[in-house]
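Hi P.,

Sorry for the delay on this. The queue was packed all week, but I finally got your sequence through. Input first:
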Amino acid sequence: MASQVNSPNSPSNTLPTRSATNSTDADEAVPDEDSSETTKLFHERLQAWKHACAYIEDYVKATEKMHEHNSKEYEKVLKTVNSPLKEGHHFQQQNGGVAGMFENIRSNTQGLANSHTETAKTLKGSVLPTFERLTREIKNKTKELEKGAGKGSKAVQKARNESQKQIELLGSTTGSYDSRGGHLKATEDPYILQRRVYHHLNKQVTEENSNRDDMIAVQNNFQQFETHVLQTIQSGLQQFTQVVGNQAESTRGMYGDMSANAHRIPPHFEWEGFLHSNSNVMIDPHGPKRSVEHISFANQDHSSTKPLIAGSLERRSGMLKQYNTSYYVVTPSRYMHEFKSDDDFSKDPAPETSLFLPDCMIGAVEGVNFNIKGKDASKGALSKVSMSHEFKFKAHTPDDARKWHEVIANISGGTSNSVPSSPVTGNSGSPTAYSPQQTTGSTNSMSPTQTHSTGSTAAEPLYMGGEKGPAGPYDGVSQRDNGAPPL
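Then the structure:
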């Protein structure tokens, strides 16, 4: 079965390059900002419009009450002239005389009272509902914002909190690595924790970009909504002016000026001023989206996160004598981890198996084959009671096999003071070879190990199966394409 990392279209192509991550304009992993800041700003904006409409509603209601009151007052005024003139027989009763004058006064006064009553009814039944409907629209827009963009902001904050948690955990384990001289459990290996950071950062950036798209849509929609709000206000004020203008000619100029002043406001005037005054908060629709390639975080380049050798190997599984290809890494923490692939994004990069090499026995290289006998430590404390197994590996070429064997042997075959106690078994030192019984027809039986160097256990990083990258030579299949250094 071909390894996933052999393909040039491998998901590893999407991983960030170290050169981009180390650039001076690298993004902050967890931005020190409130993801809901823009949502809050829009919420305040809607509140401002709602209050503006409420002011107009109150104004129309007060005007309605005033006309109701004026109607009653004109009824009182009418009573002053409603009784027949005393000694009226002294005046001519036909029209054009003093009696006709008072009849005209009584008729017009009654008309003024009726006019105020009809004006109050028109304001309450026609003008006021226009602004009440607009207020309900603004309230519905607020609920829509809270249920839509508001939830997206909460999802972003949750993802950022998880990323920060993983970064802090990586910082804790790298500190333990430095203080304990690499004495760590497999589950605490900084290499694995760093890959987990990338996994959660990818989720975070996905939520951030999704929320960003939502906020841009809301931002563009707000311009249209505000145009509608302003046009509705203009239409309502024009209707209001016509109603009160028909009632009192003397006040027509005042209300006409109010309506004209409202109509002089351009549809986009408020929106453009809003954008200008809040340019530091509003999102630039033409700006770039966030990407993992431009993110940096604490301990990103810590030495414990860089593998000594990485690439694909074939391992014999079960009694079927069938070899399956997986991605293997030897870390500075002296573990040999097996993964399905080097993809950090599609799922949590938990190792399938983890061998603490100082506790393992390593056989000699036979062509492209070499064997390791040891316990799987990928389950942490549970590995204390697990059985030892013989892991039979096959490299792509004899040269690859020798490189893998050299790195593994340097870790397990150093001097006693350079090999820490096993975090799995607690034993100091480690065997460097074992000689299992020969199996008929087997080409992978262990033979006594060859003599190894007793120098430093920190071997130069090797990457098997790819081009030569900035971190060291490698060929075959690399854990990262495009010459990117290890994560």
